[in-house]
Design brief:
135 residues, mainly alpha, 7 helices, 56% helix
Length: 135
């Protein structure tokens, strides 16, 4: 059985998203955060109040994500930032995807390889293991 046979056809959309995020893999986390804070429509849509809360119902949360993030120019940057920051523990709406979809995406995203900040984290972890201090 080849690798492609083992993939659930429902996962192809997630795999496509993971591939699309590859263009951001070497962008530092701080740069992603700056772009999302500066250009993210969600930060401008509710400047004085909290955004709508997810409902914990996949269909409703998916509709909220699509509506809430419609037209946002930094959806991919937002999604990449959340996957790096929260990983499988992601909550809320980020990058036009509800949390269930991001959790399903996370393993495919991880398979795409290391990211810009991974090297810094590996260096820090190695320093900690050797008894050093974190910068």
């Amino acid at each position: 059985m080849s690798g492609i046979d083992a993939v659930n056809p429902d996962d192809f959309g997630l795999i496509d998203i993971a591939w699309r995020l590859d263009r951001l893999r070497w962008v530092p986390r701080a740069v992603l955060a700056q772009a999302v804070q500066r250009d993210g429509l969600c930060l401008w849509a509710h400047p004085d109040s909290d955004p709508p809360e997810p409902t914990d119902t996949d269909t409703a949360d998916r509709e909220l994500a699509v509506r809430y993030c419609a037209g946002c120019p930094v959806q991919d940057e937002c999604l990449e930032l959340e996957l790096r920051t929260a990983g499988a523990d992601t909550v809320g709406v980020w990058g036009a995807l509800p949390e269930q979809a991001r959790r399903a995406l996370h393993p495919f995203w991880l398979q795409r390889g290391e990211r810009a900040d991974d090297r810094d984290r590996a260096d820090t972890d190695a320093t900690d293991a050797a008894g050093g201090t974190r910068p």
